[in-house]
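PROTEIN DESIGN WORKSHEET
SECTION A - STRUCTURE
LENGTH: 223
TOKENS:
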């Protein structure tokens, strides 16, 4: 796709975006950001391991929705065929993913710029990166339409066990720790790396790796 002449390349990009429901994703982004601006300060009550319930601002969970929308766009009606695509298609897929994550981050930062301090903006961007990585892991494991599984699972520990016995937010609670908290940024880096590796491990690459391991094993046994 990237090696095609200009007009053909543009047409290929348009077809790719249509097949991957770009318009629907854009509408989803707009709705999520609008909810963030209008209702971001509303507090959500969740069951809590201590007494009572935990109250988490809605805006702290907004990045989860953006991440799932963004990564879910990798899926299409021809998903099984795309898994066997060549390097050109894979470069387009990665370019679209990076672009979509960047747009999500820009929309999130723009929506919060006049509503929240910079520390909160960093907290939300960090959460976006973590949930994008987890969504990529989910998509590779269960299919891109199920990229929401791992991000949604994290809501339980983040809301039920978020506070320790001393009444402090736990070090891994990326939805409440300050935007400058280094351990949570470490989680973000690890999540993005894991998601990137999972995305690169397409079925045909896994099969090729298995064949290479078998050949090396037979070669070692022969010697």
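SECTION B - SEQUENCE
RESIDUE ASSIGNMENT:
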């Amino acid at each position: 796709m990237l090696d095609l002449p200009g007009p053909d390349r543009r047409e290929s990009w348009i077809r790719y975006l249509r097949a991957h429901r770009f318009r629907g994703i854009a509408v989803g982004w707009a709705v999520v950001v609008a909810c963030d601006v209008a209702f971001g300060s509303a507090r959500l009550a969740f069951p809590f391991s201590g007494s009572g319930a935990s109250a988490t601002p809605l805006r702290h969970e907004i990045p989860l929705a953006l991440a799932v929308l963004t990564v879910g766009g990798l899926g299409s009606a021809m998903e099984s065929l795309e898994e066997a695509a060549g390097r050109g298609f894979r470069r387009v897929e990665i370019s679209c993913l990076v672009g979509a994550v960047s747009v999500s981050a820009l929309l999130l930062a723009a929506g919060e710029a006049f509503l929240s301090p910079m520390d909160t903006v960093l907290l939300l961007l960090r959460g976006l990166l973590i949930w994008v990585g987890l969504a990529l892991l989910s998509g590779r494991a269960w299919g891109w339409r199920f990229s929401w599984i791992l991000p949604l699972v994290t809501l339980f520990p983040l809301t039920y066990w978020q506070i320790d016995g001393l009444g402090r937010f736990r070090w891994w609670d990326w939805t409440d720790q300050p935007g400058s908290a280094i351990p949570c940024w470490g989680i973000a880096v690890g999540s993005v790396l894991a998601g990137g590796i999972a995305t690169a491990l397409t079925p045909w690459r896994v099969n090729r790796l298995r064949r290479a391991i078998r050949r090396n094993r037979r070669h070692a046994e022969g010697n």
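SECTION C - NOTES
The two ends are 44 Å apart (CA to CA).
The longest strand covers residues 43-47.
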